[in-house]
SRPBCC domain-containing protein
Amino acid sequence: MKEIKCYYFQAVILADIQLVSDCLNQDEHVLQWNDQIIENIFDGKEEDLAEGSTYITRQKLGKKIYTLPATYTTFNPPHHVAVSSKTKEGLSKTEYTLTEYDGGTVFTVEVTLIPANSYYKFITNLMKWSFKYVYDDQFQKFIDYVSEQASKSSSDETAALTID
């Protein structure tokens, strides 16, 4: 089946690309801004992640908890990370791209699904407008979190500069 583009988001975040990448890819940060993820259970150490690494993610959507296997299909931080997960609905992929831009970082997210069958193709095409409401809220929380971390980092650097 053909891949269906379910969601697209892009914003400029006034923070260093490495900080944006860390907040996007490290659980110590992800669990602070993403209230859908309960936990990620990695095969091995989180700091050893690479393309092809797998993990289990436990997520809460509404009142339901989902346990999903996930694979890093691309792992090239800070610039590009893609995660895929196979569910009964099909193969979903979330792709993050970060690009340095004029003192900040362009943050781009694209979510796609290759439906498992015609039924899920129909349902996805019918309901993909609703993805915006779920994901926009999460990624606004992400931007706010990164901005807060950047502000703390700036304050720490300023404090360090004034002390020395």
